[in-house]
Write a structure and sequence with these properties.
35% helix, five-stranded antiparallel beta sheet, alpha/beta
Length: 337
């Protein structure tokens, strides 16, 4: 599975290359509740086809009605960019299916430049992080390769947003739990790799779209070159696989490093890493263990929900209270008996 942004931009490029008329739409700002975050994109063909999303569906329907021949409009004409707003009033928010108080401001780019789209897609396919800036008066686009993501900027004159490779997930251990976590990660637009040197485990792996590796996990972490868009989760329950991989991951810029295990096993792991691998409480502070949020999960599917919820929270910059941790939740549960 590839990045949604890349699919939208590749579709826009292909339609423009065919000399079709298209509209590229980007969420520039939001107020209140919003169904899609800033930077979300969609491309609309004048025959009514579209890729991507900027709302729950009703805004897309309105854009189709305004700009596509399929809905009786004149079509998508050549024009300089336009900024439009949806959900200014409560009635309009209700009409367009926006959450209570939600407002969207969209940048519409009519028939964007093919050469700029081609260059952007090439850079994204090469795994580069790119800052795309649009001059809202002329429609001129500039592309800059960057090293770290920057937040979207929109001041009415320029829209600048960061586009880049998918978020990546490395799972250590090809267990049943890993299959559920991988499936959820794929649905959330992660590129997923599962590493397990035990051939008997990988032999039964059944999740399509996931890369597999038989390297030792610490070598797999090193080969992956983790960056700030990478998460690494140890699910094998085997210290021989997990420990060195976790140490390698904790020395990387990965935004999330986690490990499955009971509270006792987690404490034993910390003591083991400190005693034998020169780790410290400070160097282990980034380790999420036991992994996940406490939802009293028991089955692999429920545990995967817990794990994925914590990963997404960290990815989205949510500061989670300690009361949501698995360790705290289990301790509280025990104290009730």
């Amino acid at each position: 599975m590839e990045s949604l942004d890349l699919r939208v931009l590749r579709t826009a490029r292909d339609w423009c290359a065919a000399r079709d008329r298209v509209l590229l739409v980007t969420v520039a700002t939001t107020w209140g509740s919003s169904p899609r975050p800033v930077g979300s994109m969609m491309v609309l063909h004048e025959d009514g086809r579209c890729a991507g999303s900027v709302s729950g569906g009703c805004v897309e329907d309105d854009l189709m009605a305004r700009y596509t021949r399929a809905h009786g409009a004149a079509g998508i004409a050549q024009s300089t960019p336009q900024v439009v707003r949806y959900g200014v009033s409560a009635d309009e928010a209700h009409r367009f299916g926006l959450p209570c108080g939600g407002t969207l401001q969209l940048l519409l780019e009519f028939n964007p430049d093919l050469a700029a789209l081609q260059a952007l897609v090439v850079q994204l396919e090469a795994g580069q992080l790119v800052r795309r800036s649009v001059d809202c008066a002329s429609g001129a686009v500039t592309l800059h390769s960057i090293q770290t993501p920057a937040p979207l900027h929109f001041d009415g004159a320029t829209l600048a947003c960061t586009l880049g490779p998918q978020y990546r997930m490395l799972l250590i251990g090809a267990s049943a739990l890993a299959e559920y976590v991988a499936t959820m990660a794929l649905f959330n637009d992660f590129a997923v790799t599962v590493c397990d040197p035990r051939s008997e485990y990988l032999a039964t792996w059944s999740v399509a779209g996931v890369q597999t590796s038989t390297e030792m996990p610490d070598d797999a972490v090193h080969s992956l070159h983790p960056d700030a868009r990478t998460c690494i989760v140890a699910l094998s329950h085997d210290p021989k696989l997990d420990d060195l991989a976790l140490l390698e991951a904790l020395h990387s810029p990965a935004f999330y490093v986690g490990a499955i295990g009971s509270r006792r096993n987690t404490d034993n792991r910390r003591q083991r890493l400190i005693a034998h691998f020169d780790a410290s409480e400070a160097s282990l502070a980034r380790l999420h263990a036991p992994v996940g949020l406490y939802i009293a999960s028991k089955t692999p599917a429920e545990i995967a929900v817990s794990v994925m919820a914590e990963i997404l929270a960290v990815k989205n910059g949510v500061r989670l209270p300690g009361a949501l941790s698995v360790a705290h939740g289990k301790a509280q549960q025990e104290n009730t008996f």
